[in-house]
Structures are given as structure tokens and as C-alpha cells.
Amino acid sequence: MNDTTEPIRREMVKDLNENATVRAELEKQYGQVWNTEELQRDFSVVGFLAPFVQVKRKSDGEEGLLTFQHFPRFYFDFSS
Questions:
Q1: From residue 51, how far is each of 24, 31, 59, 61 by CA, in Å?
Q2: Taking residues 25-29, what's their average pLDDT?
Q3: Is 68 buried (19+), middle (13-18) or exposed (0-12) by CB count in 10 A?
Q4: 9, 10, 56, 71: which sits with the fewest CB atoms below 10 Å from its CB?
Q5: Which secondary-structure segment (H or E) carries 68?
Q6: Does 24 map to a domain?
């Protein structure tokens, strides 16, 4: 299977992780931010395709995507 998004996603992963930032800065840019424990509390994870994670929000069942950086591990920029 040929994943045409892979080169783009690899570049995004590289950029996100080379420029990884603290939670407060992510919150300024994206709004709500989750660490791993908070993610597990608020969402069910459907799948990963770095730098994205497909999720289902537990409060209302809405499905969407979050972006994540590896270290420190934060999830942000929820979109449905």
C-alpha cells in the first residue's frame, strides 16, 4: 500500500519534534492541550498516524484528530 501522505507527515514529525515546546506555549497557539493521562481521560484512541492521533471524545462521541509532539509528549489542535 502506497501512503502518499507519508513524506509530508515525516516532515511534520521532524519539524514538530525539532521545535517541541512547553505546554504553555502550545496552549497559547492551539488552546487546550492534553498530556497522555488527560488524553486517556477525555478520549478513546482510534489510531495513530504520526504526527496525528485519531480520537473519539468520550463526553459526546465526536470523532476527530489531535496533533502530537513526542517530547515532551503533548496532544493539541483538536479538529473534527
A1: 20, 18, 24, 22
A2: 97
A3: buried
A4: 71
A5: strand 63-69
A6: yes
- C-alpha distance from residue 54 to each of 19, 22, 49, 62, 67 (Å): 22, 22, 8, 11, 9
- pTM assigned to the model: 0.93
Residue 38 in domain: yes
Number of domains making up the chain = 1
Tens digit of each residue's pLDDT (9 = 90 or more) over 47-57: 999 999 999 99
Q: What does the longest C-alpha to C-alpha distance in the chain come to?
A: 39
Q: Say if CB 63 and CB 74 are below 8 A apart.
A: no
Q: Residue 1 domain-assigned? A: no
The type of residue at 47 is G
CB 26 within 8 A of CB 38: no
Q: Does residue 29 lie within any of the structural domains?
A: yes
